[in-house]
Amino acid sequence: MSDCIFCRIVAGSIPATIVARTPDAVAFRDLNPQAPTHVLVIPAEHIPSMAEADTDRAEGQVGKAMRLAVQVAKELELDQSGYRLVVNTGRDGGQSVGHVHVHLLGGRRMSWPPG
Ligand code: AMP
Questions:
Q1: What does pTM read for this prediction?
Q2: Does any ligand 1 atom lie closer than 6 A to the CB of residue 24?
Q3: Strands, E, within the chain: which ranges?
Q4: I want to staple 100 with a disulfide (CB 3.0 to 4.6 A). Which of 20, 47, 76, 79 is the partner?
Q5: Is 101 a catalytic residue?
Q6: Catalytic hit among 38, 46, 99, 101
Q7: Distance 15 CA to ligand 1 centre (A)
Q8: Separation of 75 CA from ligand 1 center, angstroms?
Q9: pLDDT tens across 25-55, in order?
C-alpha cells in the first residue's frame, strides 16, 4: 500500500468527502478549508509535484485534473462569481503533500499578492 495519503484517497482506503471522480482524477473537500468552498483536485496517478510534471504523460494527467477542477467549479456554481486555482509546488511554494493537487478556492473575494 502506498504511503501517499492522496493515493490512499484515490484507492478509497482512507475516507474523504468526494465531490467528483473520473477515471483519471478525483475531487474531494479539503480537511482544513481556507474558503467557503475548498476542494482539492488530484490526478489519480501519483505525480509528486509540478516540478516533476514536465513529461507528456504528466501533461495529460495534470490537464485532466485541471479540467475536472473547472467542471467542479461549474457544478458548485462558482463560475459566475469566480474562483482561484492554486498548485503549491515545493518548499517555498508551500506544498505539504507530495502528490500534485489543485486547490479550488471560492465563495469569497481572494486577495493578491498571496501570502
Ligand atoms: P498543500 O499545502 O498545497 O500541499 O496542500 C495540502 C492540503 O491537503 C492542505 O490544504 C490540507 O488541509 C489538505 N489535506 C491534507 N490531508 C488531507 C486529507 N486526508 N483529506 C483532505 N484534505 C487533506
A1: 0.98
A2: no
A3: 18-21, 25-29, 37-43, 83-86, 102-106
A4: 47
A5: yes
A6: 101
A7: 13
A8: 22
A9: 999 999 999 999 999 999 999 999 999 999 9
pLDDT of residue 115: 86
Backbone angles phi, psi at 25, to 5 degrees: -155, 155
3-class secondary structure, 86: strand
Nearest CA to ligand 1 atom 12: 32
Q: Are strands 18-21 and 25-29 parallel, antiparallel or unpaired?
A: antiparallel
Instruction: Please state which of the four CATH numbers 3.40.50.2300, 3.30.428.10, 2.70.70.10, 3.20.20.140 is assigned to the domain occupying 5-106.
Output: 3.30.428.10
100-113 pLDDT, tens digit each = 999 999 999 999 99
Does 75 score more than 80 pLDDT? yes
Does ligand 1 lie within 6 Å of residue 32's CB atom? yes
